[in-house]
Structures are given as C-alpha cells and as structure tokens.
Specification:
It contains 13 helices and 14 strands. An eight-stranded mixed sheet has the order 3-2-1-4-5-7-6-14, sandwiched between helices. The protein is an alpha/beta fold.
C-alpha cells in the first residue's frame, strides 16, 4: 500500500511494465509511464491501476515532477540478438533518455540496457548516456550484471546505470551466486545459489496444446514439427544444434554456424554464431529469455517448446500478469522486459538511499564503471573502457575508477 510519502517514479519506454512492477512492489508511486509500442502499452494497462500512455518519447516531452526517472530505451539497434545498425533510430533514444533526466532533474535515475550497449557504434551510446547526466550533476555507477545474481532464474546480462543528483547512490550487492554460464561464478561466490529453471517452473500444472483450456494463463504450447521432434529426441539437457549430426541442422543454422566472428562483431552484422534449437537444463538458471525463446528453447524434460507462461515465470512475472496481442507480440513484450525481481532489488536500494534524505552537494562524476566481471576484455570493450577512463577521469572519481579496472 502506497502512502502520500511514497517516492515517485516516471517510467520511460515502460514496455509491458517489468520496471514499474518492481518499483511498485518496493512502494514507489508510478506517476507516469510512456511507450510508443501500443501492444506493450495495452499489456501494461491490463495489469496496473494507473495507465500508461502510448506516445513517442522525445526531449520536448513534459513530465510530471518525480523522485526518479527509470527506463530502458529500445535496444534492438545494438542488441546481439538482432541486426547491429549504428544509425538505428532506437540508438538515439539513449540520448533522449539522458537529456530528459538532465532537463527534469529528478533526485535519481535508473537506466537499463543490453550488454551490446557498451560496444555498439564504438561506445557512442555510453557517451550519449553519460555526458548529459554527468554534466547536469549526477554521480553515476555503470555496471554490467547478471540477473541471476539477484535471484532471477535466468542468465540475463544487462547494463545498469544508477545516478544521484549531487549525491552518491548505492549499487545493490548481489544476493545470489550464479553458475552455468561463462564467468557466472565470478560474483557472489559465497552467496546462496540462484534459483534453477526447475525450481521456477516446478509448481506449474502440465502444459496443454494450443486450442485446449490451460489451468494457468498462457500455459499452452504448439507441438513441434516432425523434423524438430526428431531433433528434440536427440538433444539431452544443455545440448544444442551443433551437438546434432549435421544432417539434422536447420538450413539457417548451417549457413551461419561457421561464419567468422571478429572482435565481437560477426559478419552480416548479427550476433554470435547461433545456438539454433537448444534444450535447456533444469538444474541451472535458464538462458536469457528473448522474443525468439519459443522457437529456440526446448523444455528440459518434455519434447516441446516452452510456453508463454514459462517464459514469463523465468522473467519473474506473476502468473496473473497478462500479455496482450499476438503470441509473437506477447513473447516480445516478455523478452523485452526487465525482470521484476531484478527491478525490485534496484528499487529497494534506491528507496533506502532516498529515505536517508541524501544531501545534493557534490559535482557530477562517473563513480564506477564495471563493464565486465571477467579478467579479460574483447578489443572493442577495452577500447571503450579506455575512452571512458580518458573522458571521465576526475580528481573525485579517479581512485574509484582505478579500483574497478585494477
């Protein structure tokens, strides 16, 4: 239950409402939510008592007064899951977000995006975000994290930026150790293990085929084609298309499987070599849920794809959360969302900071920049990191930056 003293939030690029749900659960009041995709806005409005508006987010937008602006500008322009287009209009929305923060000057902001945000267009998106907000007086942390380290049953690497206007925000510590993905063990090794896929889905009733009435909303599946069923029966948990005999490969997989990948940017401007069909492991957190999850992921124990509700569960949405539109649109809304459980961790940290009435008296600065948890970097990431150090090294932030890069 919110009170008159609840801190207030504006959610830009709100999508179906993953960030809004986490902040609402942390007793924030959402005073405005905006997105230009009508399908996502319809889903948002089906689940919240306040209403989101369907409109373009631009720098001349009037926003209500608020304590925090949050948002994740559409990321497909530089996501490894899709075409990398440096001139994609969606990329410029990073600067729109930053300039709106600088104009409206909330007490804090939270920004979320895919890990490709760090290296897309040689790092220009990083500077689109940082230059306006630091110039406006925000003291900022930028970290790449894995949502599994915050109790999400899914390996989902994302970039989070937190900023306080003239004061230093806390960056929430991991609550769980993660395992089952490269580098996942490097954070929070002493902590409880992240929930597994099996644990997240254990209490769901059996899924039904499309056309039948499910016991849980959207817990339906489309039977595999005969060819995919033959592939599925050969795949053990954790195996993917490359583990099959070549005669079983999809043609699209065969075309892309051996293309050369250099410096993190493959030919055809697409993400890394495809996994193709993959059977998930039940004893680990899931792979990242995207808009292609129903075509790419097999259930660990059953010869079928995941259901929409299983994808939403792995994103930590409650079972009564409704996703409207066509099946592909609904899955895109799920895959685009910030997991509400991760949003809740971030919201609690900000709520605790704000409850201490932080004094705004310091200059804007980049406080920490953690672009990877591993000891090595790709040449592209190293180049961006060095440029960040060059541009934002200051007497107040220098020692902290060096600590993060040592």
């Amino acid at each position: 239950m919110h009170t008159m003293s609840s801190p207030t939030v504006v959610d830009l690029f709100c999508g179906a409402g993953g960030l809004s749900l986490g902040f609402s659960q942390a007793s924030f009041d959402i005073v405005a939510a905006l997105d230009s995709w009508d399908v996502a806005v319809n889903s948002y409005n089906a689940n919240f008592s306040h209403r989101a508006r369907c409109m373009e987010v631009t720098t001349d937008l009037g926003l209500p007064p608020c304590d925090i602006i949050v948002g994740g500008p559409p990321c497909q322009g530089f996501s490894s899951a899709g075409l990398r287009r440096p001139c994609d209009r969606r990329n410029s929305l990073v600067r729109v977000f930053a300039e709106l923060v600088a104009q409206h000057r909330p007490r804090a902001f939270l920004f979320e995006n895919v890990e490709g945000f760090l290296t897309g267009a040689k790092g220009s998106h990083v500077f689109d975000l940082l230059e306006p907000v630091i110039g406006a007086g925000y003291r900022v942390h930028v970290w790449k994290l894995n949502a599994a380290n915050y109790g999400v049953p899914q390996h989902r690497k994302r970039v989070i930026a937190l900023g306080g206007l003239g004061w230093t925000p806390s960056f929430p510590e991991p609550t769980h150790s993660a395992y089952g993905a490269p580098g996942a063990h490097l954070a929070g090794r002493h902590l409880p293990k992240a929930p597994t896929l099996d644990a997240a889905l254990r209490d769901l009733p059996p899924a039904v085929q499309r056309g039948e009435i499910p016991h849980v909303l959207d817990h339906v599946f489309v039977p595999l084609s005969p060819d995919d069923l033959r592939r599925a029966r050969l795949l053990a948990p954790g195996q993917r298309m490359r583990d099959l005999p070549e005669e079983y490969w999809h043609n699209s997989y065969r075309r892309r499987a051996f293309r050369r990948v250099m410096d993190g940017t493959p030919t055809e401007r697409r993400g890394g070599a495809p996994a193709g069909l993959r059977r998930l492991r039940g004893d680990e957190p899931s792979k990242a849920i995207t808009g292609g999850a129903l075509n790419e992921f097999l259930h660990p124990a059953h010869d079928r794809s995941l259901t929409m509700r299983e994808c939403a569960r792995l994103q930590t949405f409650p079972d009564d959360f409704r996703f409207l539109g066509s099946p592909s649109d609904a899955l895109q809304s799920i895959g685009n969302a910030v997991p509400p459980k991760l949003a809740l961790s971030l919201a609690i940290s900000l709520r605790d900071d704000l409850s201490g009435s932080p004094v705004a008296r310091d200059e804007g600065a980049l406080l920490t920049f953690v672009p990877t948890l591993s000891t090595g970097m790709s040449p592209a990431l190293e180049s961006v990191t060095n440029e960040v150090r060059r541009r934002f090294r200051t007497s107040s932030g220098d020692s902290q930056l060096n600590l993060q890069w040592s």
